[in-house]
Amino acid sequence: MQNYRLALLLGLSLMITLPVYSKDVPRGSYQLSCSNISVTDDALTATCKKLNDASQSTTLTQLGFCLNSISHYGDIGNIDGNLVCLPDLPKPDPNFVFPQSETVLNQWIYGGDSNQIYQHGWGIWSGLTQQVGTVDGTAVRAFETWAVPSNIIFRSATENASLHAVNAPLKRPSLELSVPRQFGHGKTGQAKVQAKAMNVKAVAAAVATGAPDSNIFVSVAYNPPGAEHAIANRLFYESTLQQYMKNGYAEIPNFPNNSITIKPVYKIISKTVPNGIYTFPGWPGPNPPDPKKGFDESIWNSCVYVDISTPSGSGGNSNDPGCKNKTAANTFYLNNFIHNKISSDNAAYLTNQLGISVSEGDYIILVAMHVTTREDKVWTWQTFWWSANADQPFAPSSTAIASARPLSYLDEAAKHYAMSVAYAMVEPPQPIAGGKNVGNSVYGYNPYLEAGFGPDTFGISRPINGKIDNTTGIQTNCMTCHNMAAYAPKIKSGMPYASDFYISISDSVFNGTLKTDFSWAILNTLVPAPTK
User: Fold this and answer.
1) pTM of the full structure
2) 450-492 pLDDT, tens digit each
3) Measured between alpha carbons, how far apart are the two ends of the chain, in Å?
4) 18 is a domain residue
5) Domain containing 121: what range?
């Protein structure tokens, strides 16, 4: 099990000049914090800095395989004194194509080939959950090495582009955690954020007595080509966006087609939970007690149990309706989750960051993840969440989606997740520009992220066919909502979240704004301008 630590993941930036080495030495961000670099046969060896400023010798074997896998703008990075290969996306299935051509994707979308779309979404999942190396003997998955916004902001500033400056420790996705920012959207956004932050402590206190844990913490991360694009174009600086608008741009420079953005969702398990049993809400399906209100996990009334006192086990296959009857059928083990063990250093960091007590030896489990790729103009949208019965998951997933999983390319933990997709806003799909808001709804959302949204979350409503008015989180579509992401000058009130309906990428609602290539993360993390 992996000990969390701040990763010295110094991604290759156009703004940083790398040292010059022999032509046999591969380029990569590791050169910024490693020395004594050499290649012998099929191995790269170097002396690399650790986060505590010590140095250690490290070797990356199978160098040729690594160089092939990073040909699409991947990287070789230094993670806490360890050389790690960082491809744009690992491809354990040799027949899986990434990035897929936009022409082929459109054939699937407009031809109604759902199975190809399902297989593609699962191919992305199998790649980002693959192990890509080790950090001090502990395996790390691809998505755990990707760059978070604070890394990108730091590395975008010309003033920081020196060996002295970039040696500062940089965070990995699992360590830049917060209450989900989308709770700040809507008519009472700021009040909801403050209430949620206060409630985190109350929920944590209740969990210590055995109550279900409805707290979640999220991050955002970019794969190497996505991060490099954001760094080179300084997209997280408001001054950059303002300059684009001044120059007449209607959208930021589009990300390259092999870019991936993820939003991992975590829960933290205290090692001192009563009787070694941790309880959290398991998604029961979209059946809210009041269809006109949000369906937050605190009212799901459906639980699963995690026995952290037993190292591993096969686990059950169901939730506990009512949360009062723990059995073998609804009890699971840490090996049923993508998870990590928290180190002493990172326990202190998370305690300070989240405002709750986190201790060495606690665990962090992945319960959900949004995943989007820039393989087409409107991105591909797939979202994953942990499911007690991943073979027969509740909507918005399905048995058809589950049956498309590439089981031979997923480890036991990665198999335990369900998927929903949104490759179109309505069915049948409309043109991305100039289409009509007609047809049937396409719901693609994550239960742990959007199900709790009520009508006051959304600032724009366009009923499909003039009749179907989607107003809650279980009636949302990732593509529709992210299509609304645009930088609005201070004279505007900002762009609103949306549920599910069709909206053209050239809709008049975007007049006077700068579209941010479907990225809310850029807007939520903007800083004014580079500073020393």
Assistant:
1) 0.91
2) 999 999 999 999 999 999 999 999 999 999 999 999 999 875 6
3) 38
4) no
5) 29-524
